[in-house]
Amino acid sequence: METEKPEFGTLKWVKGIEYEWDGHCWQVTGRSEPGLTNTPRRGEPEGSRDRKPKLDKSALLDEAKATVGGRGKSYGTPEDNFARIASHWATFLINAKDVSVDLTPGDVAIMMALMKIARLENDPKHVDSWVDLAGYAACGAEIETAT
Question: Which of 24, 44, 91, 106 gives 48 a disulfide partner, CB atoms 3.0 to 4.6 angstroms apart?
Answer without folding.
Answer: 44
